Model the fold of this input.
Amino acid sequence: MSTLAALQEFRKSAAKALRRNRIIRIGLIIFVFFVLAAVFAPIICQHDPLKMNPLNRMKGPSREHWFGTDELGRDLFSRVVYGARTSLTVGLSVVALTIFMGGLIGLIAGFFRKLDGIIMRIMDGFLAMPSELVAIALMATLGPSMNNVILALSIAHVPRMARLLRSSVLVVRELVYVEAAEALGVSVPRMLFRHVLPNCLSPVIVQATSTFAFAVLSEASLSFLGVGLPPYVPSWGTILSGGRQFMNQAPWITVFPGLSIVFTVLSLNLLGDGLRDLLDPKLRRISG
Amino acid sequence: MARYLVRRIVLLVPVMLVVATFAFLLIHLVPGDPAAMILGDMASVDDVERLREELRLNEPLPVQYVVWLGKILKGDFGKSLYSHQPVLQMLADRAQPTLILSISSLLVAVVIGIPTGIAAAIKRGTRIDAVILSVAMFGAAIPGFWLGLVMIMFIGVKLGWLPTSGYQPWSAGASNSLRYFIMPAIALGFPYSALIIRVTRSTMLDVLGTDYVRTARAKGLRNLVVIGKHALRNSLIPILTVVGMSFATMVAGTVVTESVFSIPGMGRLVVTSVMRRDYPVLQGAILVVAAIYVIVNLVVDLLYVLVDPRVKY
Done:
């Protein structure tokens, strides 16, 4: 390679790294925006998201009601902001539960060869069902509530996380330092959590962003279908569900929560893409 | 090849067994009497007892499981608790709209996804590439059901171009029937086209950088031949993988899309049976969707051989 070509190559890769960083930055800015809205909801909103006002139904956006009012006269802006709280709570809880349950299963399957076969067959069975279907089916039994939505979505996503972690564990457990730790007589829990787990985390972090996005999208569609959160809980899905019949008289009830979902999921996808490139240099070329 | 096929089919048995077990246990997940839960608070003691008999809930769990599994294997999926129709019949009656919707959504995703992905790869680094990538990024973030609602508002109601909901069977004439599926297919397919664009673009970029593509160009082959015959052909395996995956999840996506557009298909049946706690129907639907899912995956794996003669099983 000539010096000039090398220089061009270097410039190209530097520009790419910069572009990638920008992707993370944009994702982070949008995501933090929603997090702030969720945290400071009571300060931002001048109206109670639950207070109905029958005289003020389906009014368009105004200075008093920035996003207008919904089919029961509730302030839509407050409902959308509190909806961010619901979505992010569901998303975060699902991510935490999925990592905990899926991580444990994956760790055990990857480390204990004897259990691997049976555990992974069960996970394969769950992976043969689309996650949304698993979640909907579970909701039939669990009944509509926030905790149940979180539980159903987590169970639906555990097999993916378990499989991912298992495959990393299979690689890490063959590394020399694990052998060394084994030779030193390190206890099994210490081995798993101190030595193996920390080296399997980067794909988990990337997967966490897509689990989060899945949770936000699925909570919205479950609630929209009427099998997710109960209708009085302000969530983007329940707002869309309530506004659906009045879509033509009051399109704002459909537009604002929908855009909130789009931008939240977009920010998570951007974060995931950026992190994947950052944490896994092998993939950088492929996704370029 | 034949041996591989047999092995794959044998491997499906444990998978479907797990699915069946999940479907069976669904009803027992909550502590307490499933019969009382299904019927709700208003039911009389007699009614609850009758349902317990009907569902064989008085027998030990393992016995129930074996009896239920035996029936499923014989093709007896039970009867709906609500309409008392045979479950398999109900699913079959609603298969057509779901099938049309899934296939037309796949067409939308592929027809938009692959050419756009190729265009982005050819124009890499230009403004066109940037626009395509941003649209794909947004597209992947749009919930299909919301896209459906927005289309109903603007294309259906404001412009009045297409019917906003409902369904005409295939027998009413293909064009008549398909009119009802244009918006639902876009709602379900477009987010997946975003995924296909990204995979197509990145694999094409890899292939376009290879020596044999440079050789093809050096031979003076026309651009179209280089792209179509040399580059695309060699990018097909990852594209096929993502298309297959998309199709399998689209079948599940019909649940929401059919509800938005009031299409009387299997997906809508799932939602109503969840609301009515009609477990036999729900169990049947889970088994059927999972079966479609694994079969699609198997077919995709077999298609690899057609696409790439180097793949041998």
Summary: Chain B has a mean pLDDT of 87. The CA atoms of residues 113 and 196 of chain B lie 5 Å apart. Chain B has 14 helices and no strands. The two ends of chain B are 5 Å apart (CA to CA).
